[in-house]
User: What shape does this take?
Amino acid sequence: MLERLQKILSQAGVASRREAEGMITAGRVAVNGAVVTELGSKADPNRDRITLDGRPVRLAEERLYILLNKPVGYVTTMKDPQGRPIVTSLLKGVKERVFPVGRLDYNTEGLLLLTNDGEWANTLAHPRHEVDKEYLVRVRGSVSPEQVRRLAEGVDLEEGRTAPARVHVVRESENNTWLSVTIHEGRYRQVRRMCEAVSLSVVRLKRSRYGSVEIGKLRPGEYRLLTADEVARLRREGGSPAERGAKAPGR
Ligand code: URA
Assistant: This one.
């Protein structure tokens, strides 16, 4: 199949798409021995011989699926203008260029998936696809049944009401309450803003589950590869509702 050269290069993990464009216009990329400098140019990654600086571009990149326990104090973007630490710097020993599936705030910790499989990531992060995400939220003081009910039913945020959530109190101490909040949307700072909307002050926020995959015993900063079974399960869970229905047992 013909694909744009910059896409082929970025999928091969050689560079970002933008950087790949620079390589092309600089005359560093050749297809079947002929230098190509035009940005719209296409090639067939399976049939054409693509080289960068005369060296063949390795196309069959291994797909990697990583579960990281993100510590507080890291950004999930690939670059930070403020120079804050970036989550991928925690993946010592991972040579492939992986990127986070969705995002977690700088101050949020817990389960973050990273991969170099763009298609898998898009399926999961797609807002219509409704993968459950569970968060443990420590809030100041106590939480009333009314506050739990409002969070669960949906609260009005600037851009509209949140979808119903599953919410329950996990633990109470003298000064704090731990809530479990399960949502399937992924709006910007959603859990924090939901809590603010019902006058709860968040002291700590940790994602503990993504679909059927749990964070388990990983300590902050530790990571592991997902098993093949987890990768396949998440792919199913992230499928569109029609796909999930079609694959459900007994249908
Ligand atoms: N909700 C938030 O408020 N922050 C996150 O990082 C994730 C969900």
